[in-house]
Design a protein that fits this description.
Elements lengths: L10 H17 L7 E6 L7 H4 L3 H4 L8 H17 L3 E6 L9 H9 L2 E4 L5 H17 L1
Parallel strand pairs: 1-2, 2-3
Helix pairs in contact: 1-4, 4-5
Length: 139
Amino acid sequence: DSLPCGGGSPLAHGLATAVRTGLNAQSSGDCGRIMIVLLTDGRANVSLAKSNKDPDALAEDAVKPSTEELKEEVLRMAKQVNVAGFNLLCIDTENQFVTTGFGKDIAQASGGKYYLLPNASDQAIAMAASSAMADAKAS
């Protein structure tokens, strides 16, 4: 199996969807503890409004949000992970030689764990997730 990479990253939308999914699972009694595993290169380039298909954001003459606005939007969603009481594991796949450090900012805003795995294999991701889950159970 493979996971497609590259192109638009609706990072805020992904976090919002993860929180909503976690809240739904909790309310139905399907699970106890929620852990969100976020694989990211830390490059948000699609606004929440656009990913939610807001007509104003999709218009041809729509003003594209700045990088800072997109980052703030992502950090607001990351804080919602913390507010919901969920654990977040941010696996940053960004190349360490050109890193912006935004993955670390996301983890910090969510109160979560951060791992830099620029060449993340399935085994490395599984090990990081297992370690984070063990830490969450211990706390």
